[in-house]
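Structure first, sequence second, as always.
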């Protein structure tokens, strides 16, 4: 087994409960992690929570509890939702944990000793919700250019990171590794930003106590964004277990929302270069989701709770929609009507109905026992060719990663299976005893195609894949099988008994 495939989500701020935006990144990371496990790779999938900073301290104060109590309460909403959505993370990092604090302090000390951190006074416009300083020229109508909320003037003596010293090194890395920042539109933004000239960044706060104290000055705490970025290495034992760290780092994919691109594509790489560490292979910034054409906000009452949607569509129906509907990397608009349409047409009609009708025919014509393939025809070769093609297409899409293209390829394959079912017409073959061997082959090929389909949908819809696998009569776990070995055609064990079972995706009837 080779090196570890390492994928991360951003760590989520505990000032509020998770919504479909945070779940979007997490489900995408999960599908990517599951796909690489399906390929037989060793995977480390990290998510977690960002628990320091002024925003959290103020939220705690409003609710009359300590910041730690607030964080402990809020983190449960994340861990429970990820469990509910079948998120297969290998570790959940909390920035209030002693292990993370130790690594953050060691990392900060290292940069300080290298001369990359210095003391200076600062005055500037500060956005509390985004925990970000802005220049007067960056403000839009006197407000935060990122979230549009009020900013306040802040003046204090802080420690600064010499970001300005590393602009050229980061730029050179981007030019030599264009795949480092994806999609292209985001890379262009980052290059443009660096070319305007980078200013040194404040990395500490003196007027705030809720944070990790600096190792070299206990009167100040680390700025929340600095502490947060270090989670990617604290979770894999940086400075504690060198062998484990070297076996996992660098990350293959930091999946993030585009609003935190600057931190991940400029500041984090500069911090790593300063510390003498390799840079992540890919920083992939996805777009924002709107709801029925409007930006999500609590005041509009449209910040959707994922559990509301899973109650209607099931967990896999939820996962499928968000991975299939949107082009990862670009903005997308959530529509309940579109979600319902995809569920009924693609999940209930195409996938669910296909599995039911194929297994029902085996039950009807062969008492549920799958026969051997004996008499082959051109249609069989076409189906086998489709099975081979879809594996390559999914690999190509997931290497980018493009979840909607991968699912489109899988649904094209399901379409080929359904055409095969219609063209071979097992119900007609069953009428003529002399065509029994041909019927055997047709039934085998249909079941074999379902076996491959179950493996292909596994990263995106794990419960559905397990349900298909069980209906095919397998007693082991689908997770015990890997591609490409299990993707070879003809591996279904003839003589095994299948069971149609309940519909995988019962249609959702609507009134009106």
């Amino acid at each position: 087994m080779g090196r570890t495939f390492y994928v991360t989500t951003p760590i989520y701020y505990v000032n509020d409960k998770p919504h479909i935006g945070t779940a979007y990144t997490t489900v995408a990371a999960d599908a990517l992690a599951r796909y690489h496990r399906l390929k037989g790779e060793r995977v480390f999938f990290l998510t977690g929570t960002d628990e320091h900073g002024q925003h959290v301290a103020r939220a705690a104060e409003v609710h009359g509890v300590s910041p730690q109590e607030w964080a402990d309460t809020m983190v449960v909403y994340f861990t429970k939702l990820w469990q509910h959505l079948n998120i297969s993370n290998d570790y959940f990092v909390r920035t209030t944990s002693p292990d993370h604090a130790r690594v953050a302090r060691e990392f900060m000390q290292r940069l300080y000793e290298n001369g990359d951190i210095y003391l200076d006074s600062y005055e500037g416009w500060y956005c509390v919700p985004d925990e970000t300083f802005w220049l007067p020229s960056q403000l839009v109508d006197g407000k935060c250019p990122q979230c549009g909320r009020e900013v306040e003037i802040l003046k204090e003596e802080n420690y600064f990171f010499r970001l300005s010293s590393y602009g050229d090194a980061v730029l050179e890395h981007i030019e030599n590794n264009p795949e480092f920042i994806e999609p292209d539109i985001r890379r262009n933004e980052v290059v443009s930003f660096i070319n305007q000239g980078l200013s040194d960044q404040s990395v500490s706060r003196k007027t705030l106590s809720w944070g990790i104290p600096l190792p070299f000055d206990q009167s100040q705490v680390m700025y929340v964004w600095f502490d947060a970025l270090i989670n990617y290495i604290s979770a894999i034992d940086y400075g504690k277990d060198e062998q484990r760290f070297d076996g996992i780092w660098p990350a293959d994919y930091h999946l993030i929302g585009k609003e935190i691109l600057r931190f991940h594509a400029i500041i984090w790489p500069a911090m790593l270069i300063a510390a003498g560490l390799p840079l992540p292979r890919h920083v992939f910034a996805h777009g924002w989701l709107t709801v029925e054409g409007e930006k999500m906000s609590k005041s509009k009452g449209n910040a959707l709770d994922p559990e509301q949607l899973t109650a209607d569509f099931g967990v896999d129906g939820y996962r499928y929609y968000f991975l299939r509907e949107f082009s990862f990397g670009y903005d997308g608009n959530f529509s309940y009507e579109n979600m319902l349409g995809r569920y009924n047409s693609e999940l209930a009609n195409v996938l669910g109905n296909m599995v039911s009708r194929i297994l029902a025919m085996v039950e009807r014509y062969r008492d549920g026992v799958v026969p051997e393939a004996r008499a082959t025809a051109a249609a069989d070769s076409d189906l086998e060719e489709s099975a081979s093609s879809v594996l390559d297409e999914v690999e190509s899409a997931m290497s980018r990663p493009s979840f909607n293209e991968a699912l489109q390829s899988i649904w094209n394959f399901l379409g080929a299976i359904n055409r095969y079912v219609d063209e071979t017409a097992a119900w007609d073959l069953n009428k003529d005893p002399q065509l029994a061997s041909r019927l055997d082959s047709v039934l085998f090929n249909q079941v074999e195609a379902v076996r491959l389909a179950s493996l292909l949908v596994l990263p995106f819809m794990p419960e559905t894949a397990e349900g298909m696998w069980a209906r095919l009569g397998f007693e082991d776990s689908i997770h015990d099988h890997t591609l490409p070995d299990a993707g070879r055609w003809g591996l279904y064990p003839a003589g095994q008994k299948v069971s149609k079972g309940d519909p995988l995706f019962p249609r959702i009837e609507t009134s009106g």
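Margin note: Residues 336-366 form the longest helix (31 residues).
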